[in-house]
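Proteins fold reproducibly. Look at a sample protein:
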Amino acid sequence: MKKLSSLLLALFLGSFLAAPASAAQPVGSANVSGIVSHVSDSNIKITDGTGHQLSFLIVPKFDKIFSEDGKGTYQMKDIKPGQYVKVYYDQKLLGQRHADRILLLRQNNALKKVVK
């Protein structure tokens, strides 16, 4: 039993070393813009300009959703499929993409109006 748990521990720790090279990038150093195709409490999927679908993990109580100028803030419930967004992300934890900040935009890249 000790050998099995030692092996599992070694595999788990080894997976951190085998993370992709992009994991060394600073937080939020990568970004992508696109149309939201799915959004939930723990995940957001967008389709970028080339037609690729990218999925991003979202941590609980994620609160970094802004207008492009940074003056307006939003909640996760304000993000709907079909909206144009820009996602700043990194891939530190086991190579999974996770959102650091989301900017809500309009289809023509203008700011989305803040509704209060």
Notes: Residues 17-25 have pLDDT under 50 and may be disordered. The chain has one helix and six strands.
